[in-house]
Amino acid sequence: MKDEHFQRCQVATPPDVVALMWRLARERRNGERFPHALDLGAGDARFAHSRDSYEKYTGIEFDKVKAAVAKLPAGATVEVADALVWDKELASLAIGNPPYIRHHHLEPKWRDDAIARLHSKTGVRLKKTANAFVLFLLQALQQTSEDGLVVQLVPFEWVTRPSAKELREFISNQGWSVCVYRFDAEIFPSVLTTASITIIDKRSRESAWAFGVIGADGSLRPISQPSGSTSRVLEYADRDDSLFGLRGLSPGGQDIFVLTEQERLHFCLNRGRDVVACVTSLRHLPADLDVLDAEAFGAYYVDAGRRCWLIRSDREKQSPALVAYLAAVGERWKAYTTCTIRVTWWKYRPHARPALLFSSGFVGKGTKVLVNSVGAVAVGSVYGIIDRGDRDTAAVAKKLRQYDFRRRVVSHSNNLKKVEVRQLNAVLAEFA
What would the pLDDT profile of 7-55 be if each residue is shown by its tens digit? Predict the structure, then answer.
């Protein structure tokens, strides 16, 4: 993995959260001390400081500097190693906060080797789209005894995301009980995800899944569904041929590929020839705006100084002005993996101009949906909805606005909820 992604994932666990995790762990074992606690991705080994909770603590940390400065009480040790390679004695408890690194940022060979090792040990073949913490969860299960306990601070998303489906099925097939408490407060401001304390008890053979919420004061309350409501979480579905959603275009750095009106004029780029209209967010638009036409696009994007002009890469020949702009970018593009893996760094695959624009993230009951009469390309967190049938797109947009997504999706970060594109396609399939 890249160094910047490795450094970014090293987020310290708040002391009160560490204490809560130890409390929940000991409650599962009637207050008894654990013979051996294992911490995969130990960081500064702060989970070792609860000395009354274990007989022996072993932390595994890849970062030599972190491991060297860890202050350890008696009975605690830290080994410098790759936590997904380490396979020594089994522990009675695996507790900790594994790294949150998205699968895009994992070094491919390291990821493939880790998945292969876990498959040979557990029989579980994880997807390559599984984020790092999913691999760590499976490793924690592998490195605990038959009646062991796993208590991990991980993103809540694993309870519903397809990328963790194989892990969930493995746990259910083993008959282990699972309790997942999501935080109702933001404990990691720099990480855009909802954190949870996940408890997997291998001693249990009830195959029961339970969910709860941790309040700002540390109180716990049960919830019936991961959505936080009485409704089941939206299923993930493949797209219908005639009406479907597409993720927003990710060209590789919006600061390079998406320009403001001032930047467009500065580089003498021509509308249509060099750049096309695009939207990267609908958040700032008025709640009562239903149609993004030329007038609204001009008022809320162009005149407002927002990034709204996408440079074109689909023309066989670029104008001298666009060639000059691309040269002026210099080497900034090398900071984006998406650019570095292309033959020509700026040649992305164009997206169709959708009939509707759909904001994937929202706060409240539902999300913003606009009829795309200006023909803007959907970029980033804005999904495009393609309609290949003869439908009243305004009517489809109205249905989507009235749909209660709040009750059907899990919390993404604090009060923010996010609709995944395959969940959107499950809803659109009903309309189609």
Answer: 445 678 999 999 999 999 999 999 999 999 999 999 999 999 999 999 9
Environment class of residue 147 by beta-carbon count within 10 Å: exposed (0-12), middle (13-18) or buried (19+)?
exposed
Name which of 229, 225, 97 is nearest 159 in CA terms: 225
Write the DSSP string, 229-277. Answer: SSSPPPPP-PPPSSEEEEPPB--S-HHHHEE-HHHHHHTTPPBTTTEEE
Q: Of 392, 387, 357, which is closest to residue 371 (Cα–Cα)?
A: 357
Position 190 pLDDT exceeds 70 = no
What does the block give as tokens for 365? 């009951």
**3-223 belongs to CATH 3.40.50.150:** yes
First to last CA, the chain: 42
Spans of all domains in the chain: 3-223, 243-431
Residue 417: name the closest of 255, 200, 234, 202 by CA: 234
Cα separations in angstroms, 268 against 33, 131, 320: 70, 42, 10
What is the per-residue pLDDT for 318? 95
Give CA–CA dist 46/71, Å, rounded: 8
**Is 343 in a helix, a strand, or coil?**
coil
